Amino acid sequence: MVSMAIVSAWVPFLGLEIERRWLSWPNIAYFAPVPLVTAFVCWRIYRSIKDGAEVMPFLLSIALFLLGFLGLTISLFPYIVPPAMTIWQAANAVSALQFALVGYAVIMPLTLAYTAYAYWVFRGKVAEDITGGGYGH
């Protein structure tokens, strides 16, 4: 969370274009929810760890990383290699992208199905408490 705060405070000042994007009106009104929600998620991570929750800190950490990527996207879009190449210049030929999309559309559901099956097969096999059963007992 400290690293996220440092990077979030530093990024708007890496270049004039990024600074204008984050800190000029009306952009500041559009993009202000991103750091505010990020701060809220950090606070919720801290509270859920303090309260002894197990699943919530994990889910909130995922949200924190997604918010970090959103901030990076806002800062750099449409450039992939700032400031030289836009996302459209970096894209491959349409036929190659369509081929990749078909492959992804086939493989991704299979991967998700296999992962769900693996979780189903191994559910309850490991004890939460090292003395409470599982494989060792």
TrEMBL record:
Keyword tags: Cell membrane, Membrane, Transmembrane, Transmembrane helix
Keyword Plastid: no
UniProt main location, coarse: membrane
Membrane topology: Multi-pass membrane protein
Pfam families referenced in this protein's UniProt entry, alphabetically: Cyt_bd_oxida_II
Highest rank taxon of the organism: Bacteria
Keyword Isomerase appears in the UniProt entry: no
Transmembrane segments: 28-46, 58-81, 101-122
Subcellular location, record wording: Cell membrane
UniProt family annotation: Belongs to the cytochrome ubiquinol oxidase subunit 2 family.
Name under which the protein is recorded: Ubiquinol oxidase subunit II
Species in which this protein is naturally found: Methylobacterium iners
